[in-house]
Amino acid sequence: MSSNSPFPSLLDGTLSLPVTPLIRGALEHSKKITSPTTVNHCIRSAYFAILLSQKLARKDAEPLDAELIVYSVIMHDLGWAVDKSLLSKDKRFEVDSANMARTYLQSTKESGVWDKHRVQLAWDAIALHATPSFSQHKEPEVMLASMGILADFQGHFIANQLITVDEFKAIVGAFPRLGFKDQFIGIMCGLCAYKPETTYDNFVGEWGCEFGLDGKGTGKEEYAKNRLASTFPRTLLPTLIALAEYENEAPAE
């Protein structure tokens, strides 16, 4: 690996990331849009994703698209942009991130040739990264992207302890956490304040219910009340009851 690579080889040279023009460009793009703490989180997650790909590799499996995995993970939190004018008001942050990453792919010459399927895989890897119940049943690249990102939250405590303490420390040592816990809470609560309707039906809303709209409890009760009113039993059940009246009616002539 070249000495000017943004990604050093770790674990005695056994763990490295692909460094292509696209990956370099994606990293710089992420640095322009998100905070240093978010950038380091994305880089650590990329290392974890590649590390897990090594540990879970099967001899009979098709070769993985490592560039796609790393690109997706580096770009997966563009929806945490510091400049809120870059974000939608009506989409989950994961969808914002996926859309922004797709737009970047389509606009840069660094991407080379990506066919429709490859672009879709990157979009899926980003949009589904926070929903393991979907991502873990998708293509290997989508699954590994999600696992790598989750590993930065769970470290060596992930299932079956696939990542050792020493491996975790090596990656964090290269790209420190920079107060990630507190900034993450602030980002989640900020999303609940900025575009609450996109947070009610997913895990982001849990942070608003717990920590309010500013991470310090402000607006907590009102947010929780609004979120409860938007849950499916409160929104779907009344229409199901209303529609039941048509079940026994004769069809219109």
Automatic annotation (TrEMBL):
Which SUPFAM superfamilies is this protein grouped with? Answer: HD-domain/PDEase-like
Query: What CDD domains does the annotation carry?
Result: HDc
Domain HD, which positions? 39-134
The record's annotation in Gene3D superfamilies points to:
Hypothetical protein af1432
Signal peptide boundaries:
none
Q: Which InterPro entries match?
A: HD/PDEase_dom, HD_domain
Query: Could you identify this protein by its name?
Result: HD domain-containing protein
- Higher taxonomy: Eukaryota, Fungi, Dikarya, Ascomycota, Pezizomycotina
